[in-house]
Design brief:
Residues 452-523 form the Tyrosine-protein kinase G-rich domain. The structure is a single chain. The longest helix has 59 residues, at 249-307. Strands 14-21-20-15-19-16-18-17 form an eight-stranded mixed sheet, with helices on both faces. By secondary structure, it is α/β, with parallel strands linked by helices. Helix 6 (101-111) packs across helix 8 and helix 9 runs antiparallel to helix 13. The chain contains 25 helices and 21 strands. The protein has four domains: 18-50 and 498-525, no CATH class; 54-269, no CATH class; 312-452; 543-797, 3-Layer(aba) Sandwich (Rossmann fold), CATH 3.40.50.
């Protein structure tokens, strides 16, 4: 049928009600209790069977030799210039050495950690370590064969069973192969030659069996290299903390202590090796330098004897000192001469009344006194002249004195210049004489100086090497460890794992989280209508008049007379709610026609139709149930012979049939309930419903009965229900919980808005008890025999 398309009317958005969301999970509280109990039990079992792990710590200070400069043995090379720019190892390099495979291998070998002893008890095996009553000594082990044994699962673990004080048996725990041997004697077990000895620990009569496990050395080294953690307490410090987590405290302490011992031992060996090599190098160089020094001293002696030389160096120094003195005096005389020339030029070029410069550094005291007197006269004249004229007798007298003093100064400067020229010539002559004396020194003196220089170099180097040899000998005799132990290895009293509090909290959280996740995912993935809330959210425009509970398979689907079941109570509530809807239909002369339809088949419209008719009939009302689903009639589920009788389709197709002849009584004991079957399945149901007789039929039935319950066809699949819905006073739209998809509810909303349904209301069928709304689940079974607790608990815990 052609239908008008409408834009879907989406449900109104509502704020989330926290209480409602919480109720979705609280109603499954038995699941949470069961989940918590199970997880706590598993947590307790895990705690019991898990071997506790303890953290062992040790702290050391790595001597920061970088800040102190090179070590004493390396300092010899550094002072010689062989290690220029090269510093000591950094802290990071030292950490790398401690982490190295070499050191860990030495540690594992020293402690025999590739051989492990266990005490088999219950679900877990406890490592004995030093408390083992037996000790295995490996004389020779083929690592490659052992790895193959492990890969092929041939067994690397053996049970030790003493047979007597001298004999024992080793039993392979995987292959059950038995090796017999004697204590203290060599025994070959395939991949190793071993000896077994008693350690002195007495075996108890009921003590569990002791086993020994052989592991490849590389595997054990790799395990503990990964297990040992190192941290610097501060970036600027060299305090290093070592951590190791292991189930055996004593074992972890021995590993850390032995690792530090091996590190110090290796550092001392490295230092001693450097010191030994340094001593050999110094001794070799001393021997060579001693021979060279002897040769230089003999050559010096021969040179002085051949050239009859004394202390030529002292004589040369004296000549040089005199030459320096004369040069200094030449500079002073030249300076005074320049000053004299400058004063003469100034005196001759200036006016008589100008002042002369004083304090120029002229060493002639007489000249300085004359210049001072001259300047005093000039100043006096200028002072008097400022208050009188040139004709003043005092001014004239002062002018005469100034001219006389000016001449005296000029004569004194001329005389001083002459004296300085004479002195300069004398100094030049003396300097030339001393220069000739210095240049006259024989070239042999320079040869002598070369010989003496070589002697001094060899002597200094010889003394330096002697000093370094003593320092190196002292360093070789006293070698301090590189790592200072701050705290020897110690273990925490409490295990780091497993922690009871963490396991308990995790178990509780997991016990709550697992059922919560299941319920959440179930609700998230569920696209079916489950409860009243789903209907109200998806189709708020259509009222819900009834909720029909799910009927267990062993219970009847029909409402019986004087029935006190939950099903019967649900239909009674539906009947009550229908009374309010019937009031809206107005005054009618005849009965009320109630259509029952659904979206698709299988939603329970026939069950609702039949049980509603029975419920109405139980109120002493005359009720007729009409089979209006002409295509797939289902009334035979409740009336076995319904399909064998003529009915609605026959009446609509045959004008000769009378309606009252087609109505039949039902199989129920209620005389108020009658049935009009659907009749023969026609090829054209839609054409039959369009006939005028359809309206006549419903009008006639309303006159005959108080209620006419019409079981119609599904609305989404065929148009039959829409064709006849105009004759309905009330239309009940059945939605099956857990079956009808939420998106199909929009079809009912759109059909109502299009006017295709008259007075439409929802009936929610097959609802679980836990999903009933408005407290229905509390009151339906009032007065009914109470079910056992486990049965009620199962119903509450039912999720699916």
């Amino acid at each position: 049928m052609s239908q008008k398309k409408h834009t879907p009317n989406r449900p109104h958005e509502e704020e989330m009600n926290f209480r409602e969301e919480l109720d979705k999970y609280l109603r499954f509280w038995p699941w949470f209790i069961i989940g918590v109990i199970i997880c706590v039990v598993f947590g307790i079992v895990y705690f019991k069977i898990t071997t506790p792990q303890y953290v062992t710590k040790a702290s050391i200070i790595i001597k920061d030799e970088e800040s102190k400069g090179p070590s004493s043995e390396m300092a010899a090379f550094a002072d010689l210039g062989f290690l220029g720019g090269m510093g000591a190892s950094s802290i990071e390099n030292e950490i790398g050495i401690i982490r190295s495979k070499t050191l860990m291998t030495k540690t594992i070998k020293a402690l025999d950690l590739n051989i492990t002893y266990y005490e088999e008890s219950g679900l877990k095996a406890e490592e004995l370590y030093s408390a083992s009553p037996f000790k295995v000594t490996v004389l020779q082990m083929e690592e490659e064969i052992l790895r193959n044994v492990i890969n092929e699962e041939l067994g690397n673990r053996f049970a030790i069973r003493p047979k007597s004080k001298t004999n024992f048996e080793l039993i392979n725990t995987q292959t059950d192969e038995i090796f017999k041997g004697e204590f203290g004697k060599v025994l070959n077990i395939g991949f190793a030659d071993i000896t077994l000895e008693n350690t002195g620990f007495e075996l108890e009569a009921k003590r569990p069996e002791v086993t020994v496990q052989f592991s490849p050395l590389e595997a054990v080294v790799r395990k503990y290299r990964e297990g040992v953690q190192m941290n610097l307490t501060d970036k600027k410090s060299s305090l290093l903390e070592l951590h190791l987590e292991d189930p055996v405290k004593e074992k972890a302490q021995d590993i850390l202590d032995q690792l530090i011992l091996e590190y110090n031992r290796q550092a001392i060996e490295d230092k001693n090796l450097v010191a030994t090599n340094t001593a050999a190098f110094i001794d070799e160089r001393l021997s060579i330098i001693n021979r060279e020094l002897d040769s230089v001293e003999v050559g010096k002696e021969s040179f002085k004897e051949a050239n009859q030389l004394t202390d030529i160096q002292a004589e040369s120094e004296l000549f040089i000192e005199n030459a320096s003195e004369y040069k200094k005096r030449q500079q002073e005389v030249g300076t005074q001469l320049e000053l004299a020339n400058a004063m003469l030029e100034h005196l001759k070029g200036n006016r008589p009344i100008d002042l002369l410069p004083a304090n120029l550094g002229i060493q002639e005291s007489g000249v300085n006194e004359m210049i001072k007197e001259y300047n005093t006269l000039v100043l006096e004249r200028n002072r008097i002249l400022s208050a009188s004229t040139e004709e003043n007798p005092v001014v004239l007298r002062l002018n005469s004195q100034i001219d006389q003093m000016r001449g005296n100064v000029l004569q004194s400067l001329e005389r001083m210049r002459s004296n300085l020229l004479i002195a300069q010539k004398d100094l030049d002559r003396q300097a030339a004489l001393i220069g000739s004396q210095i240049s006259a020194i024989p070239s042999k003196e320079r040869q002598y100086r070369g010989i003496e220089r070589q002697q001094n170099i060899k002597e200094a180097l010889y003394l330096f090497l002697l000093e370094k040899r003593e320092e190196n000998s002292l360093s070789l005799a006293v070698t301090a460890p590189k790592a200072k132990i701050v705290d020897s290895a110690y273990s925490d009293a409490e295990p780091t794992s497993p922690k009871p509090s963490i396991i308990l909290v995790a178990s509780l959280l997991l016990g709550v989280l697992i059922p919560f996740s299941i319920i959440y995912l179930k609700n998230l993935l569920n696209n079916k209508v489950e409860s009243r809330e789903d209907l109200e959210k998806q189709a708020k425009e259509i009222p819900l008049v009834g909720e029909i509970p799910r009927v267990e398979k062993k219970n009847s689907e029909m409402v019986l007379k004087n029935d006190r079941s939950v099903l019967a109570e649900a239909f009674r509530i539906l009947h009550t709610n229908l009374q309010y809807l019937i009031l809206n239909t107005g005054d009618k002369s005849g009965g009320n026609t109630i259509f029952v339809t659904s979206t698709v088949k299988g939603e329970g419209k026939t069950l609702v139709s039949f049980n509603l008719a029975v419920t109405l009939a139980n109120t002493n009302k005359k009720v007729l149930i009409v089979g209006a689903d002409l295509r797939n009639p289902q009334l035979q589920r409740f009336e076995k012979d319904a399909r064998q009788h003529v009915g609605v389709s026959d009446y609509l197709a045959n004008d000769k049939l009378l309606l009252k002849d087609l109505i039949r009584s039902t199989n129920s004991d209620n005389p108020n309930l009658e049935l009009l079957p659907s009749g023969t399945i026609p090829p054209n149901p839609s054409e039959l419903w369009r006939r005028k007789k359809t309206g006549e039929m419903f009008r006639e039935l309303e006159k005959m009965y108080d209620y006419v319950i019409v079981d119609t066809a599904p609305s989404l699949l065929v148009t039959d229900t829409f064709l006849i819905n105009k004759w309905a006073d009330i239309t009940l739209y059945v939605v099956r919980a857990g079956y009808t998809e939420k998106k199909l509810l929009q079809f009912a909303v759109d059909s109502k808005e299009d006017g295709k349904f008259h007075n439409l209301s929802f009936v929610l069928n097959d609802v679980k008890l836990v999903n009933f709304g408005y407290g229905n689940k509390y009151g339906y079974a009032y007065g009914e025999e109470k079910k056992p607790f486990l049965k009620r608990l199962f119903n509450k815990a039912s999720i699916f």
